[in-house]
Amino acid sequence: MRSASLTFVSKPTPFALLLCLLCAAAQAAPHRLVVSSGDCRDAELSGQSKAFYDSLRARPEQRVLGAPEFGERLFPAPSRSFEELQRQLDAAQDQFYEGRNAKATQLLDDALRDIQRLPGGEARWKLFVRALLLQGLNHRALGKTRDSDAAFLQVLRLQPKYQLDPDQYAPSLRQAFDKLRRDLARAPKVKLSVKSTLPASDVYLDGLGMGQTPLTLELPAGAYELSMVKGDVASFPRQVQVQGVDTPLLVDLAYEGSVTAAPFPCLAIADGNEERTLSHAVRLGGTLGVEEVIVVRLERPSSGPKWFAATVLNVEGGQKLREGGFKTQGLDAPSEALNALVDFVTTGRSPSNLVVSANGRAPWDAGGRGAGASTGAELTAPHRLSEETELSDSAAPSGKGLRTASYVTVGVGAAALAGAGVVRLLAQKDLDGLEARRAANDGRLVGTDAQTVALRDALVKKSHLMTGLFVGGGAAVVTGAVLFLVSSPAKPPPALSVGIVADGTGAAASVSGSF
Q1: Cβ proximity of 150 and 157 under 8 Å
Q2: CA-to-CA distance for 482 and 485, rounded, in angstroms?
């Protein structure tokens, strides 16, 4: 009988790694978002909203999206002014002409990141073009012709008639630039159709003004940064993939323009429509990927005291979970009442009688708006900025069932993988026994030795069992992960889109900024 040895090496499976990554992401992701509603310029509203937010954040068990992160994800702002960026481009140009190309590359890349955060307009576009042309020159000096052409094409795709200054650029470079222009003119174009829920909104691509909505453009395929402005109202900046034959885009500027980040995250209320405000709040929670949104506001009835109220909304189900508030006077809310309100919105209970729960008609709502506070009024919201669709009312229960099934399936898979580890430990005893029999028989495993045969058969059974547990456990984990991903409610075709793009072969979603 030929001797054989079995070696078991315990390695983390891809499924186990995926499970660990999902768990780590779940632990790190913010759970709640605090946003005020009303007049976003009201100092009293902003001050008391921030005091509530600080009280909530002070509790270690609460994962709340930070106000700075809110602004960074929705309205990324440059860290430097136009003048400072112009000086940095001057420094990059000096480094280029002095032959320090690596330093010039660093300065240019850094400047371009901030330029792309500036508000759209002629000033930004000119700064952007200067940076791109200098980047193209620098890449050519480094022998990176393809990167150089890409920088030049970013200018030509939106301004195909742009001419290089003959006093600043060599004839050979101007010839290469003109060749890129001709090649681009022959390349197929994609129709980009842009509409807005607010008509006659100004459209900017890469900071260059392109016209007003409704707007149709013929563009080379590629990624563009799009923003939209109407008066004081601005959209979230977003990356749009222009591809296929036709790329339609509908931006809900009425929703996006109601959101501000300073001095505190806020939803502006223009018409006092509470249902629309809460729907926007749930939608905002889906945009930022949180589970709950807490909408805080100041209620000023025509008669009686002033109230600071908070409404807790579930993002996935689009439901109002609870609502409470306390009487307030002056600019500062009492800390005891704030802490009691935090207790109420996070647990549903409050140890203090300072907080009033709106189980029926809210005391601050003379018009009966609070009558539905505990009825679970359903709202709608997408789960991410790239999904501008609305949740159907009937999809939430099935989504919850699939989510529960995903948890159970992942748990079964994890148990199976753990069982495989246990079997591995038991198999080690049989391996040790075989090694002992080998040593007793001069380094050979003898087929007539009954003890050797018994140990071998037991080891084979355990090997088969362990393989089955690994395969079954891995399959269960993968199935659970798939169920988790598809357990969000079914979505009908989008009514109001922030970033949907589609063509004849499929659809894609654009994502705003670098979130």
Answers
A1: no
A2: 5
Q: Which of 11-15, 224-228, 242-246 has the lowest mean pLDDT?
A: 11-15
Q: Chain centroid to CA 279: how far?
A: 19
Contact yes or no for 276/291 (Cβ under 8 A): no
For residues 300 and 449, which has the higher predicted lDDT (pLDDT)? 300
Tokens of 352: 């203090």
Task: Answer whether residue 90 is part of any domain.
Answer: yes
Look up the domain containing 153 and give its range.
82-186
Neighbours of 463 (CB within 10 A): 16
- How far apart are alpha carbons 255 and 481 in whole angstroms? 32
Q: Cα-Cα-Cα-Cα dihedral of 34, 35, 38, 39, to 10°?
A: 120
In a domain, 328, yes or no: yes
- Domain finish residue from 147, 163, 186: 186
Element (H, E) at 25: helix 14-28
Q: What are 481-494's pLDDT values in tens digits?
A: 766 666 654 444 44
Give the CA distances from residue 226 to residues 8, 127, 150, 199, 250, in Å, rounded to whole numbers and listed in that order. Answer: 55, 17, 19, 16, 12
- For 261, which DSSP code? -
Lowest mean pLDDT among 135-139, 276-280, 351-355: 351-355
CB 248 within 8 Å of CB 242 = no
Q: Reply yes or no on whether the pLDDT at 188 is more than 90.
A: yes
Q: Which residues contact 219 (CB under 8 A, 6 or more apart)?
A: 157, 158, 189, 190, 192, 205, 242
**pLDDT surpassing 70 at residue 495:** no
Domain boundary among 124, 151, 186: 186
Kindly report the CATH number assigned to the domain that includes residue 318. 3.40.50
Locate 477 and state its tokens: 């984990």
Average pLDDT over every residue of 456-463? 76
Distances (CA, A) of 147 to 66, 138, 204: 37, 10, 25
- Token representation of residue 187: 């390349």
SS3 assignment for 190-242: EEEEEEECCCCCEEEECCEEEEECCEEEEEECEEEEEEEEECCEECCCEEEEE
For 133-154, b/e burial (b = at least 16 CB within 10 A) is bbbbbbbbeeebeeebbbbbbb
> CA torsion sign, 87 to 88 to 90 to 95?
positive
Residues 376-414 as b/e (b if ≥16 CB within 10 A, e otherwise) read: eebbbbbbbbbbbbbbbeeebeebeebeeebeebbebbb
By 3-state DSSP, what share of the chain in percent is helix, strand and coil, each rounded to 5? Answer: 45, 20, 35
pLDDT band at 468 (very low <50, low <70, confident <90, very high): confident
Contacts of 503 (CB under 8 A, 6+ apart): 190, 243, 244, 245, 246, 247
Sorted by sequence, the CB contacts under 8 Å of residue 100 that are 6+ apart come out as none
Q: Say yes or no: 147 and 218 in one domain.
A: no
Q: For residue 478, is it within any domain?
A: yes
Give the pLDDT confidence of 147-164 residue by residue, as tens digits. 999 999 999 999 999 999
What residue type is assigned to position 73 of the chain? R
